[in-house]
Write a structure and sequence with these properties.
Elements (H helix, E strand, L loop, with lengths): L13 H8 L6 E2 L3 H10 L40 H15 L18 E2 L4 H4 L19 E8 L15 E2 L11 E2 L8 E12 L5 E12 L11 E6 L6 H5 L3 H5 L18 E4 L4 E4 L11 H13 L18 H4 L16 H12 L12 H12 L10 E2 L2 E2 L9 E2 L7 E3 L17 E3 L9 H5 L13 H6 L6 H9 L2 H12 L2
Antiparallel strand pairs: 1-12, 2-5, 3-4, 3-8, 6-7, 9-10, 11-13, 14-15
Length: 504
């Protein structure tokens, strides 16, 4: 089923719709009945915590790589990639690391930056392909963090094909995200200002943990006031590993975990985000981004080129990036479009290479998974109910043209669904079907290597948590009972839980 228009009188049931259209980006070989039965058995959560599970050491299946002891641990190609395809990975890596300059420039292959932008290259935000961070003091910039922005919209502006789609529109002056840099002659849109309030939490045994409750402000606005109904959402750049494997999970397997009305009574009601695909011109299952707002790696890459760097590409052909109609100087500035690249700053070949690179950033192997404390922590993780959202295992689809991602048992510890995380983490900015209190369950693989790769231990969508324990204690909404169980458990169990997360 493919829709010719974005406006419909009646919304189709979202689950059926997503199953029909969400795997269009994959060349999938249907599973046999025998394969389906084997997969159903192998992805069942374990009940034996005395030893590691079979294949658990390789969270990305054959695509897993050994753990590098340097900051490059997240920058390796899939472990099962061929020599010929590794060459494409390296070319894509070069584009991902490229530092863009403003046009006109003698470096024709690298000009076209901005005019407004958040970073001069992909790697500037996704540091070493890892996690970004909020500014660390008044002398640090927000290079890997920005504010998304939108305003409420009326029903006639939304995609009617998607049930429960929440209508929003760009801010008329500032668009869909605020850029904190501008090329020469163009003012930046804002400066990110953050204030933190300390909140103390007492744990069983008397330990005190201090959490940070941030308040965000768009300061020093360069183009006038925000719309009075503007909704802001802080975002740090997430880690990049394993994206191709997440993209290769069949939509039906993700939707099997949907429980919007909490029919099983466990307090968890995961919801799928169904978003509009600019790549395929129809609704698709959202998988990527902090609210699952992007359906494919290619679209997410194209959106980032345009929004973060101001680079035109096949899905966003305008040379001015994210500039709005009111930013006239930005709209009329010289861009880096090149006839040799279809008038774009990044053409189809370039976008496909960056997509291939992003799809094949490898997941490192597990560490210390047979350590008794790690095994205890795994048991605590499962028995506390964390797996209700952080689904341990999936098996990817058989893919004819993606051998690295084809038919792999993977351990992302995510259901890729939306969950209500409560008022404490709310941004009150909806995105497609995601409400202002909902976030996609983040994959946990590689989380224990964050400090090694990125040089910090900031977690959650805005980096407010300074440790894994703080991240757990910030959970609310559907996860409130599980968070409270962590507060109440003996210190040895809590320490083991963190030790298990550090082994992922």
């Amino acid at each position: 089923m493919k829709f010719a228009s974005v406006v419909f009188a009646t919304a189709l049931p979202f689950a059926a719709l997503a199953q029909e259209v969400s795997d269009l980006h994959l060349n999938v070989v249907p599973r046999t009945a025998d394969e389906a039965a084997r997969i159903a058995a192998i992805v069942q959560p374990t009940t034996d915590f005395t030893t590691p599970e079979r294949f658990e050491e390789r969270p990305a299946g054959a695509a897993t790589v050994r753990v590098h002891s340097t900051a490059d641990a997240f920058s390796q190609p899939s472990g099962n990639i061929s020599f010929e395809r590794e060459l494409d990975f390296k070319v894509g890596d070069g584009l991902f690391r490229k530092i863009w300059v403003s046009a006109p420039s003698s470096t024709l292959a690298s000009d076209g930056l901005g005019p407004l932008y958040n970073a001069r290259g992909c790697q500037n935000c996704h540091l070493k392909d890892g996690r970004g961070h909020p500014p660390e003091g008044p002398d640090d910039n927000a290079i890997s963090m920005f504010l998304r922005i939108s305003i409420p919209a009326s029903d006639n502006e939304v995609i009617k094909a998607i049930a429960d789609f929440i209508p929003t529109a760009p801010d008329p002056t500032y668009g869909l995200q605020l850029q904190d840099f501008g090329i020469a002659g163009h003012d930046a849109e804002y400066r990110l200002d953050i204030e933190y309030e300390d909140i103390e939490v007492e744990l069983a045994g008397g330990e005190i943990v201090t959490l940070r409750n941030p308040t965000y402000r768009a300061a020093d606005l360069g183009y006038g006031d925000l719309h009075p109904d503007a909704m802001l959402s802080p975002r740090i750049a997430p880690q990049m590993i394993g994206l191709g494997l997440l993209e290769a999970v069949p939509a039906a397997d993700i939707l099997a975990h949907v429980d919007e009305t909490d029919a099983d009574g466990d307090g968890i009601s995961g919801r799928a985000n169904i978003v509009w695909s600019t790549e395929f011109d129809q609704p698709m299952l959202g998988r990527f981004g902090l609210k699952a707002g992007a359906p494919t790696i290619r679209q997410q890459s194209a959106d980032a080129f345009a929004g973060d760097i101001g680079i035109s590409n096949p899905l966003h052909p305008n040379g001015w990036g994210e500039c709005t109609d009111t930013q006239v100087a930005c709209r009329t500035a010289i861009d880096g479009g090149d006839e040799a690249h279809d008038g774009l700053e990044v053409d189809t070949d370039g976008l496909d290479l960056v997509t291939f690179y992003s799809r094949n950033l490898a997941v490192p192997a597990r560490r210390d998974l047979d350590d008794p404390e790690v095994l205890l922590g795994k048991e605590v993780f499962y028995e506390t109910g964390c797996t209700a959202c952080h689904t341990p295992k999936f098996v990817t689809a058989r893919l004819e043209d993606q051998p690295e991602q084809s038919f792999q048992l993977i351990w992302p510890y995510s259901d890729l669904l939306l969950h209500d995380m409560g008022e404490g983490l709310a941004d009150h900015r909806p995105e497609a079907r995601a409400t202002g209190t909902e976030w996609r369950t983040p994959p946990l693989w590689g989380i224990g290597l964050t400090e090694q790769v990125s040089g910090h231990t900031y977690f959650l969508h805005d980096g407010r948590a300074r440790s894994l324990l703080e991240a757990v204690l910030c959970h609310g909404g559907e996860a409130q009972p599980h968070r409270d169980a962590v507060v109440a458990m003996p210190k040895d169990d809590r320490d083991a839980l963190i030790r298990f997360l550090e082994s992922l």
